[in-house]
Every structure is written in C-alpha cells, then in structure tokens.
C-alpha cells in the first residue's frame, strides 16, 4: 500500500513526463501527492468516523432501537430483554389476530418490502442495470439509476426508480425482458410514477406525473394463471359504476363501470368474451330482479347468450331483422327519455319506471360487417352509432363483444369509452382497442395463452386515472351458474 492520496477522476489527470526516454511521449495519469503516513491515517480515521455518523443518522430508527435495547440490557440484563421480546411478540400476535388488514399493511408488507429490497433489488441492482444497458459510463465513472422505494403486494413487487438525468422511460420499456429475468420475475412492466403527497417540495403537485421517476412492476406469482372463481351473488345493493366481474393482477377485485359509459370487449375466438358478459349480468342480478336494470340480449351466433335467454328482459337472435328491430327499439326508448329528461335533469338515476337498459351484443361484427343483408347492416350501424353517441346520459348502455377490432369491421369502436382487450391475434390490434401506446406500456394481449384454463378471460384494461394498462381475469361463469342465475330471477317472478 502506498502512502498517498489519489484523485481518481480522470478529468483531473495531469501530464506525467517520461523519465527514462526523453523522446517518449508524455503520459496522462492521476496526480499523486506523497504525504506523511500519520496524516494519511488521521484523514482516513476522520473519514471513517464521518461515514459512521452519517450511516447512523440515515438509519436513525435502527440506531435508536439498537441503542434503546442496549440501554435496557445494561439496566435490567438479558432477562428484561427477553421479557420485552415476549411482550412485543404477544402484542404483534394480538394485532395480527384482531386487525389483520392493518397488521398486513403496516407491519408485514413493509417488512417484506425491506427484505426484498435487501436480498433482491439492492443486491442485484448493479449487475442488472449494467447488463440491461441502463447504466451509463463517462470518464470511467459509472452512473446507475437509484432505487427510491420498494413496495410489495401478495403477488407483485413495485420498485420506485429515479432514472438517470435525461433518461426517458421508453428506454426502460425496451428492457423489460432483461429486468424480468434479472430480478427473477414472471413479468416486468414500467408504470408512470406520481408525485407523493408527503414531499415538502412540490406539495401542491401531489398526484401529478413525477418526471424522472418510474415504477417497475415485477410480477412474482401470476395470480391469474388459474381460472378465477365466479364472483358471489351481490347483496341487494348494486353499484352500476363498480360491478365486480373478476380479479386484477394484484388480487384486488376487477370492477367495471356501466353507468354512463359503453363497453367494448375484443377478443379472438375462445378468448373468454362470454365470461365477461355473464359476469356483468351476474353482478347486476339483484338490480335486474328489482326492476332497476333491464338487459336486452342480442346473440347472432345463438351460442352464448342463448343459453340464459330467460334472464334477458328482451332477447333476439333473429338474423332476418329481429336483432336490428331490437336495437331500433332501444333507440326509440332513448329518444323518448331524452325528450322527457331534456332540461329537467342531467344525471340519470335508475328507477322501476325508467330502468337502466343494457343492450348486450355477443358478436357486434355480425351486425356491422358480416351480415349478408346490406340494408340490415346499415340500419344496425345507424342504431348502434346513435345509442353509443347519445345513450349514456339517459341510461342506455351498449355492451358489445367482437373478435376482430379492425376499422373495416367496426368503425365506431371509439364511441365505446370503456374497452377491454382479451387475447388478440396481432399486437397491432391491442392499440386499436386500448388506444395508442397501450402495447408499449405492457398490454401484451397477443401473448395471452390460447389454453382456456390459462388464458381464457384474461385481458387488459385501462383505468380512468392512469394510462397504464392493468391485467385482469374475468370470473368463470359455468352453465350451472347461468342456470342458477335464471332460477334466482324466476324465484322473484
Ligand atoms: N374466465 C374464464 N376462466 C376460465 N375459462 C374460461 C373463462 N372464460 C371462458 N373460459 C373457457 O374458454 C372457452 C371459450 O370461452 P368463450 O366461449 O367465452 O370464448 P369467446 O371469446 O366467447 O369465443 P367465441 O368468440 O368463439 O364465442 C370456454 O368454453 C371455457 O371453457
């Protein structure tokens, strides 16, 4: 070991003249100052002490806990410490027993997040960043993005990252595969970060997008790899803006709004569109029974809705015009309501006299594109366009399923404010359904498994408050469940 201080920044290099060969060109090297050993030791000692104080201050909760425990041991010996540990364990046990949700969110999850941070993310951060090409080198210095926080849920880890200055999130989107493999996750997605409320800087901007920061969402266990059981029949209260139809990837309920919107479900054949339709009907069942909601079913294929036709207030699978008549009846009802409500109210509240009408169409494309009768096609398109452009405010909602979302098949898809992309054949179709950029943001609907038990009912949605798609799976409604639903309604009749 040389007794010297080196300044390692290459930008600080000085020219070192060649000593042996006067014709040799000079070299550039860091400057070296020779110092007395005592001074070097003293400086290193001061550096070490300052570093220690900084670590103790930065980790002040741990410092205080250890200091407190040490002081207690000094006062009462190890017996006092054991007694204390017993009381703390008992307290935590009681908390977990009586208040599991708060124990989970305030103790267990933060502890697990800390553990995952130490054992997975901090440990592998540098190699993963370097191998993914997300680190940056300049003048022999390495610059790494930094981990701000780690959060865990039952199935997913979320890592808040401060990117390098000037680094765009799109670079991270390009490396999701490296990140998933590097941190041993099944899936990695990049999410927009929002400014936290507690920061003293920019407090007024809390909840807005946080430039320079992103969330890495790393799915450890795929909670949607097995069929999701059907949702329980709701109690009498039905909230038409939060209908439970399945589960989200983070294991929370997947809630769908129908009040004040129209819903388009796109999915290739066998993608599980039927399970979304039936889950919606199931979620509204008490309101249907109470007469506050009416579901009008249209099933050109005669395979899906036909099975539970008794559940629908009106139903048609008549390809020779009955289905279009039903759509036009819905338009008539809508116009009558508009005439009555106009100037009186702007908010629709379902009543028995004016129930919320859901027009459910299993294969929209049959009406808009595949029907051989040109006139019927024109009438169907006109009725659907009118309903989807004017029906929201008077309590008429269109729920349409279709296999092919291309424009030549359905040119009114933008009139459906809420859209669900189940398994699709091509990646381009994802943006057609969910909007531009959805595929890049992680809605990989073309990669959903075609195996029914793994991928049927799995899809992506976009929530109202975020551009980032969320992976969901609809509850699996079996034929027996549909029969039970029909029986539930006929009991009341
Ligand atoms: N949510 C689900 N969970 C598990 N399996 C499902 C789910 N939904 C559907 N399936 C399975 O996938 C099969 C196909 O589903 P479904 O008929 O609903 O697809 P689809 O999208 O309506 O197809 P198509 O457009 O051809 O009618 C069903 O027979 C069922 O076995």
From TrEMBL:
The domain of life is: Bacteria
Has UniProt tagged this entry with the keyword Membrane? yes
Asked if ATP-binding is a keyword of the record, the answer is yes
Q: What is this protein called?
A: FtsK/SpoIIIE domain-containing protein
Any idea where the FtsK domain is? 225-431
Tell me where the transmembrane regions lie: 38-57, 87-108
Q: Which residues bind ATP?
A: 267-274
Q: Which organism is it from?
A: Actinoallomurus oryzae
Name the CDD domains on file: TrwB_TraG_TraD_VirD4
User: PROSITE patterns per the record?
Assistant: FTSK
Alphabetized PANTHER family for the sequence: DNA TRANSLOCASE FTSK (PTHR22683:SF41), SPORULATION PROTEIN RELATED (PTHR22683)
Key words of the record: ATP-binding, Membrane, Nucleotide-binding, Transmembrane, Transmembrane helix
């Amino acid at each position: 070991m040389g007794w010297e201080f080196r300044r390692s920044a290459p930008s600080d290099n000085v020219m070192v003249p060649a000593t042996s060969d006067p014709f040799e060109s000079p070299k550039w090297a860091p400057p070296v100052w020779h110092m007395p050993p005592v001074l070097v030791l003293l400086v290193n000692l001061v550096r070490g002490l300052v570093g220690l104080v900084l670590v103790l201050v930065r980790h002040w909760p741990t410092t205080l806990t250890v200091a407190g425990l040490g002081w207690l041991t000094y006062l009462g010996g190890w017996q006092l410490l054991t007694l204390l540990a017993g009381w703390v364990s008992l307290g935590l046990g009681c908390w977990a027993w009586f208040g599991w949700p708060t124990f989970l969110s305030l103790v267990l999850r933060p502890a697990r997040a800390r553990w995952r941070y130490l054992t997975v993310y901090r440990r592998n951060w540098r190699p993963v960043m370097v191998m993914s090409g997300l680190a940056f080198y300049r003048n022999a210095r390495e610059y790494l993005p930094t981990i701000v926080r780690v959060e865990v849920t039952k199935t997913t880890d979320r890592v808040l990252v401060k990117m390098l200055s000037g680094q765009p999130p799109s670079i991270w989107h390009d490396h999701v595969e490296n990140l998933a493999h590097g941190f041993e996750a099944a899936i990695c997605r990049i999410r927009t970060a929002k400014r936290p409320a507690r920061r003293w800087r920019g407090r007024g901007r809390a909840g807005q997008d946080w430039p320079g920061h992103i969330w890495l969402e790393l799915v450890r266990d795929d909670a949607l790899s097995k069929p999701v059981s059907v949702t329980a029949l709701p109690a009498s209260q039905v909230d038409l803006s939060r209908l439970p139809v399945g589960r989200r990837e983070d294991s929370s309920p997947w809630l769908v709004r129908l009040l004040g919107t129209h819903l388009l479900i796109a999915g290739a054949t066998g993608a599980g569109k039927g399970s979304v339709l039936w889950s919606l009907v199931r979620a509204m069942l008490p309101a249907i029974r109470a007469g506050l909601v009416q579901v009008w079913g249209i099933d050109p294929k005669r395979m899906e809705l036909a099975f539970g036709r008794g559940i629908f207030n009106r139903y048609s699978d008549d390809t020779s015009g009955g289905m279009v008549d039903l759509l036009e009846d819905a338009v008539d009802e809508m116009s009558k309501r508009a005439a009555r409500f106009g100037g009186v109210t702007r908010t629709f509240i379902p009543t028995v006299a004016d129930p919320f009408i859901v027009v459910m169409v299993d294969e929209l494309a049959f009406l808009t594109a595949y029907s051989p009768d040109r006139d019927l096609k024109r009438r169907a398109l006109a009725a659907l366009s009118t309903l989807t452009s004017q029906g929201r405010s008077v309590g008429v909602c269109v729920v349409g399923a279709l296999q092919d979302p291309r424009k030549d098949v359905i040119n009114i898809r933008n009139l459906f404010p809420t859209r669900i992309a189940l398994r699709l054949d091509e990646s381009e179709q994802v943006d057609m359904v969910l909007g531009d950029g959805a595929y890049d943001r992680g809605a990989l609907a073309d990669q959903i498994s075609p195996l029914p038990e793994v991928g049927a009912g799995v899809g992506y949605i976009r929530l109202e408050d975020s551009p980032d798609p969320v992976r969901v799976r609809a509850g699996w409604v079996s034929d027996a469940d549909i029969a039970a639903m029909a029986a539930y309604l006929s009991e009341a009749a």
